[in-house]
Amino acid sequence: MKDYPRRSFLKTLALGGAALKLGPFAWDAFAATSGLPIETTASGPVLRRTLGKTGLTLPIVSMGVMNADVPGLLRRAYELGIRHYDTAAGYQQGRNEEMVGRVIKEMGVRDKVIIATKEAVPEHDRMLSTADGKARFIENTEKSLQRLQMDHVDILYYHAVDSVEHAHAEGPLEALRTLRKEGKTRFIGISTHKTVDVIGEAIRLDMFDVVLVTLNYTMAHDNGILSTIERASKSGIGVIAMKTQAGGSVRPDAHLPTPLPPVSQTALLKWVLAHDFVTTAIPGFSTYEHLEQDFSVASNLAYSEDEKKFLADKSFTALAEFCQQCGECRAACPKQVEVPVLMRSHMYAVQYGNRDMARTLLAGIATGQGLEACRSCDGCSVACRNSVQVARKIGELKALTRGTALYA
Ligand code: SF4
Ligand code: SF4
What we know:
Blueprint: H1 4-21, H2 27-34, E1 38-41, E2 44-50, E3 57-59, E4 63-64, H3 71-80, E5 84-86, H4 95-107, E6 114-120, H5 130-148, E7 153-159, H6 164-167, H7 170-181, E8 185-192, H8 195-205, E9 210-214, H9 223-234, E10 238-242, H10 265-273, E11 280-281, H11 288-296, H12 305-312, H13 315-320, H14 339-351, H15 355-363, H16 371-374, H17 390-401
Parallel strand pairs: 4-5, 5-6, 6-7, 7-8, 8-9, 9-10, 10-11
Antiparallel strand pairs: 1-2, 2-3
Helix pairs in contact: 3-4, 3-11, 4-5, 5-7, 8-9, 14-15, 14-17
The structure holds iron/sulfur cluster (2 copies).
């Protein structure tokens, strides 16, 4: 069994030690020893990595646009050196793609950036025949391209795939092959919160160029997840990391009576990028302050003393209550409620402050397995194998949605 966290931590410290001693002209030497090419931008040197067999080289910090609704934030991200924007058809009912398209067009930088978008297949479309499923996926992608005002994207993901069966559904897979062949996308990818199962299947299918996976410090001891992602990378698939901040910048322990030391967002991001099989991360910052903070990592992966202390104090993992979407708790619910989806919705609503995304997710749950099933249930019997307080979070979701159709 590999000791991933320790190996990565020591490796980064070694790189960090070298980087900390270097003067302003020693970045080339640092890049040579770390294997990372650098690019000098207005904000200084930026480390880049190659995205698997796509051959694209990207700054190690990118922008997950999901939580952003301020066009200026995308412009500032470009000024700082960000060159990869990740959006999706489902974000803000398409308005997120519209904003990305508008800003990129206004800046006139389409040929200088990598644009990724994602198409999910909702529950009601999963029963379609292969031909109809393919046609629906292509039709939805065309709508995305219209919103983006682009004739193609660089990466098109089959989005939020939550099972092996869903991963090899022929309709979406045929659509992706066709869209790549027609030049509507340069590369195709798959995004999932079920890393071990779905990424394992993606490797077997041998058709994806990129995978978008959840990876953060709360998974430091999960060798199954880490080794699966590394296996994808070794097979030539480019790896992009999401949910790197384990729930965003709002303290996950805000409900606790005693204030705790602040979460080190930079330490969390550096920990993810210390894994050299990750090409780039897409933190979902929504303020200028958090953009600057996250992008500072792109020029220096060395841990500061405070960051080392933060990572050494293991309490964060328990306090983060990050749901890894394993689904193991579902069996304990007498109504088979989609607890992982409820937990993800809670994260979007409470920690990301993205109520829109939470509503979309809740509305997509099959009837009878969503929050409405919890309404008449006074004592939640579901226990998490990790540290997620499922009953408390369901209570908070109920309070947030009371009086809406989601809690009818
Ligand atoms: S509140 Fe009841 S119905 Fe909802 S998840 Fe918990 S046990 Fe299941
Ligand atoms: S709440 Fe816990 S057991 Fe349930 S899906 Fe999330 S991590 Fe797994």
